[in-house]
Design a protein that fits this description.
By secondary structure, the chain is α/β, with parallel strands linked by helices. It is built from 20 helices and 15 strands.
């Protein structure tokens, strides 16, 4: 039997307690913090000796008591689903109030045997979320003489709703963090640094590791494909910022307008198509590292805005007037001679000096012949794993051929070559013939390339035509010089992709490797270009 004799003041105090708990749970992110706040609030709200939460383990058909506070605190334990008052509540979805457990046949003495605690009274409610019962919450041993009341039951039901929402949210956040950790581990493995033995590379990494401990800006120099982004990620991994985001952006991949929006963000209505506020890369990288690839291609007006961020650690979104402070470590990379760009008036001298705090030059792969084998074997193991195929090995002759290859595309070329072999080689050993180094090497004068005759540069059926430099360049791409730039780029893409598809007999996987892109991206590109797969 229960009573209902709480005063209006007590009810108001309980409501305030529930509201405060709701606000605290909204701010809590860690499951342990959420559960701790709930149990502490439950013990106070019901003036009980203890409070506990159990969750349903449906596959095992068990109720798992994993969190207990107060005098009833005990190590986690399990009981069969349906056993005891908590098991009954979890099975039926009913709220149960018992002020004398000795007279209730549903009470399971085994719980007290597990906890070493004598339960005299219990108030138990189901924890539900979106129609599903997640578990139970119970207060044990009321400190008041009259025991638990009907009003206590109503308050516990209200509390259980908060518990259900909080547990569901923290489960989702934990799952998202776990998925994020898996993705981060996969990304780290994909960008794992292979140091090699070349003295120039060893020295470059020594400088980078020393610089990683500081917040100083790093400028990476080197030809395309030498591994500048991999080195940038490694600096981030070595730095005190490694738990914060690593954000990368290519300064030549976007138009100046889009690049400004990507870097600094924009406000709703800042320009046509800006239907909502968007954070820029600097905001997204706050506390972490921002990698600016191809910094030598940055337009002049954005150079001044970047300089301000580097100097003042402040920025404004496009179309906004709010000044935002950011804490970002910048790593920039370029294959250009920035000193020459400064002298030519194409790059700001003050920005150059702001970026050039720690400068590191990465050697080309042709200067690292002793590192080719280690890099190739790493890429081969990764490719076989991603493609779910049996491990392959490189023949001694293939390794020797790769050591002697000039690698104009550097490490990126090597990675793409190995990925192509992993797709096409019958296995289990990759031979010199499988490498086909001559077929995919840049064409020498008077020599046909893999895709066509001299001057085609990878596009069959295109020839140089007489005329100026711009006309020749357009002719080499098989694109009319009369076309607007956007249409010319689109036409070049269409011819380049079609050439790769033709060369691979329509095999998208092989064509993707040849083009240096992932198969799903090629499939989307084919559709956007109106080409048949």
């Amino acid at each position: 039997m229960s009573t209902s004799n709480s005063t209006d003041a007590e009810l108001r105090e309980r409501l305030r307690g529930l509201m405060a708990l709701s606000q605290a749970l909204a701010a809590a992110t860690e499951p342990e913090e959420v559960i701790g706040r709930i149990l502490d609030a439950g013990t106070r709200l019901f003036r009980s000796e203890g409070c506990s939460i159990a969750v349903v383990d449906e596959p095992a058909r068990e109720l798992h008591f994993f969190a207990m506070e107060g005098r009833a605190k005990a190590p986690p334990f399990r009981i069969p689903l349906g056993q005891g008052i908590a098991g009954h509540v979890a099975s039926t979805g009913e709220t149960v109030l018992v002020n004398d457990t000795a007279r209730d046949p549903r009470f399971f003495q085994g719980v007290d045997q597990k906890t070493g605690f004598r339960t005299r009274s219990i108030l138990c409610a189901p924890v539900r979320w979106r129609g599903a019962t997640l578990g139970t919450i119970q207060a044990v041993n009321a400190r008041r003489i009259e025991g638990f009341t009907d009003e206590d039951s109503e308050v516990l039901v209200a509390l259980s709703s908060l518990v259900g929402a909080a547990i569901s949210r923290t489960r989702a956040e934990s799952a998202a963090r776990a998925a994020g950790n898996v993705l981060a581990a996969e990304s780290e493995a994909r960008h794992r640094m292979i140091t090699g033995r070349t003295p120039a590379m060893v020295e470059a990494l020594r400088i980078l590791k020393t610089a990683a401990a500081s917040p100083s800006t790093v400028l990476l120099l080197g030809e395309s494909g030498t591994g500048k982004e991999v080195c940038a990620r490694q600096v981030h991994h070595w730095s005190p910022r490694h738990r914060a985001p690593f954000v990368a952006i290519n300064c030549v991949a976007l138009t100046p307008t889009l690049l400004e929006s990507e870097l600094f963000g924009h406000e709703k209505g800042a320009f046509t198509g800006a239907t909502a506020r968007k954070k820029g890369k600097f905001e997204l990288a706050d506390g972490g590292t921002l990698f600016l690839d191809e910094i030598g291609e940055l337009p002049a007006d954005l150079q001044s805005k970047l300089l301000r961020v580097l100097q003042e650690r402040e920025l404004e979104r496009v179309g906004g007037n709010e000044t935002l402070r950011v804490d970002v470590r910048v790593i920039a990379a370029t294959n250009r001679d920035l000193r020459a760009e400064v002298n030519a008036g194409r790059f700001r001298e003050d920005l150059y000096y702001r970026l050039n705090v720690v400068q590191v030059s990465l050697p080309p792969l042709r200067a690292r012949p002793d590192d080719v084998a280690a890099l190739a074997e790493h890429f081969l193991a990764r490719a076989c794993s991603e493609m779910k195929r049996a491990p392959l090995r490189l023949s001694p002759e293939a390794l020797d051929a790769m050591r002697r290859h000039p690698w104009p595309g550097n490490v990126r070329e090597l990675a793409n070559l190995i990925e192509r072999c992993a797709v096409l080689a019958p296995g289990p050993e990759i031979s010199v013939a499988d490498l086909a180094l001559d077929a995919f090497a840049p064409s020498a004068p008077g020599k046909s390339s893999a895709f066509g005759p001299p001057g085609a540069h990878g596009l069959p059926g295109t020839q140089r035509r007489p005329g100026g430099a711009g006309t020749n360049a357009d002719a080499e791409a098989g694109v009319s010089s009369e076309l607007p730039l956007g249409e010319a780029v689109e036409a070049f893409k269409r011819r380049r992709v079609q050439a790769a598809m033709d060369a691979c007999g329509g095999n998208q996987a092989r064509a993707a490797v040849m083009l240096g892109m992932a198969p799903p991206n090629l499939n989307r590109l084919l559709k956007s270009l109106g080409l048949r797969a």
